[in-house]
Amino acid sequence: MKLSLVVPCYNEEGNVERFFSETNRVFANNVDDYEFVFVDDGSTDSTYSKLESIYVSNPQSDIQVLSFSRNFGKEAAMFAGLEKASGDCCVIIDCDLQHPPEKIVEMYRLWQEGYEVVEGVKDDRGSESAAHRFMANTFYGIISKMTGFDMADSSDFKLLDRKVVDTLNQMKERNVFFRALSFWVGFKKATV
Ligand code: UDP
Ligand code: MG
Predict the structure, then answer these.
(1) Which residues of the chain fall below pLDDT 50?
(2) Protein residue closest via CA to atom 16 of ligand 1
(3) CA–CA separation, 156 vs 154, rounded Å?
């Protein structure tokens, strides 16, 4: 069973190599078949050439590199990556290692148990300022009221089963709040 990693990258020249090696390290002995789908979202630094050299120097790895003509934003990058991903499940993950790759292994196990959407949730909003926390709480308060989903601790760090990815790929909405959309489509959910 293949896992696709969809990795939106915007000006991540300092992180892409570390992300690649760290993920490979964590997956050794844990996940057999996986691919990287890197999406360079119109970076203005050397992100794209770093991705190219990862591709060239790792012919044994399963890697796709997509490149946008300009910066379209993370949501567009995630959707482009999901369209190209071929895995039986897909994990959307940030390139800057703020989403710990170890958690993907937990997500993968839950998927093997039958969960179709596995959400990465923040158990600690870390060092965010009080003002930021207030804004985040207000924002998610409103969104939760409107949608009926509690997304206060949610993030874009998710595992989606192939069925969910196919559903999202068929949807016409392209200017969306990805976090909400993957709740909205339904399916059997778990969190890590
Ligand atoms: N990102 C992207 N396009 C953008 C902004 C960000 O693809 O226009 C990527 C970025 O490279 C990272 C992820 O989206 O992999 C999250 O971005 P960032 O770390 O800036 O967000 P935050 O940590 O504030 O959630
Ligand atoms: Mg970040």
Answers:
(1) none
(2) 94
(3) 7
